[in-house]
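ok here's YqgU-like 6-bladed beta-propeller domain-containing protein, seq below lol
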Amino acid sequence: MKKVAILILCLFFLQACKEKNIQVEVPDSPITEEVPQSYPTDTDIEMAPSKQIPSLQLDRSVFHSVIGWMSDDEILFILMENGEWTVQSYTLSTEMWKKIYATTTPIIQGEIHPSKEMILLHTSSNSSSAEVLLLHKDGYVAQSLFFKSAEMYMNWHPENPNLIVFTTFYEDWTYDTFIYDGITQNLETIEVENPFIKWYDDNRLMVFKWAESSLDGSELFLYSIKEKTLEKTAWNHVLDIQNLGDSMFYMTINEKQNQFEYRLEEKGTNRVYEWSSPAVSNYSEWVVPNMSIIQPNQLIMLQSKKSGNVDAFTDKSVLSSVSLNGAKQFGEIDVVPIDCSPNGTVCLGGYEKENWIQLDPFKEQTWLELKE
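and the structure came out like this:
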């Protein structure tokens, strides 16, 4: 275990509780079922005519969160009612709910793999342990893992849903980092200095060594899972790196020019797209723009129109789509989390994903209304 001084600055990376055994569960049959329009109630759901922005109403007491897009027409929710927690999909075109999974254990959060075949659920009934469920889209639990922890960080391999990294944090802010291989069902502990590691490829993990001042960014190292060695790379002043699948996204800070510099690089080829935007900070660290990966070589992101301190901003940010073919700007929205459809035509915006952002033609409107 290791003490972490940087945890206070990095809490936004965390994703909640867990225990340390492995258990594989495969129910006899999936729990998937069609749920009538009346769930949660007849009056809770309203849908505008086809091709218009949808309108959905839910009781706040029933709503927990929106997980994200299962397809261009299907959005996944976590709902809770009468002591039951459910994962349900809502199909926009038919206005139908489908119950995928149900449990009496609180669901902390969910994540959809880019392949759209698997769903990762983080569940917990207490503050010192948790269970991670690997749920097939058809509703059966493929595997489950138990951890002891107070908080948890997870990173899912974008191309191989069998590979997941977990970091479990304990009440004394020590931590352990694990690599899980769903094929072998092996959970292996590794020793790394930074708990917030990411998949670089099937055999290596990205480890970020931060400078004494986080405003200076970090150095990128690659950890070999087989050799258990750390290799230095040429990347410095790194703020973020994302593995999109077919390509890598790099974000660095150029302090002299006070700007963020980005690079989208296709794996195995020389295709590269580079661009920049004004740098934004909150005094102690740089603020990484909100983004949503929609394809193995495409993302949608928010970029500030000017540099400065984020707390002093009143201006909106520019919403753009970026691929190896270049960038396209759509319009301006407030700085909020975004989650965009696989075809890149719509984004859900806001901390509860309550805003519907149609990209072309650009239009933003509340679509999810939570009734008190």
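fwiw DSSP finds no helices and 35 strands in the chain. kinda neat tbh
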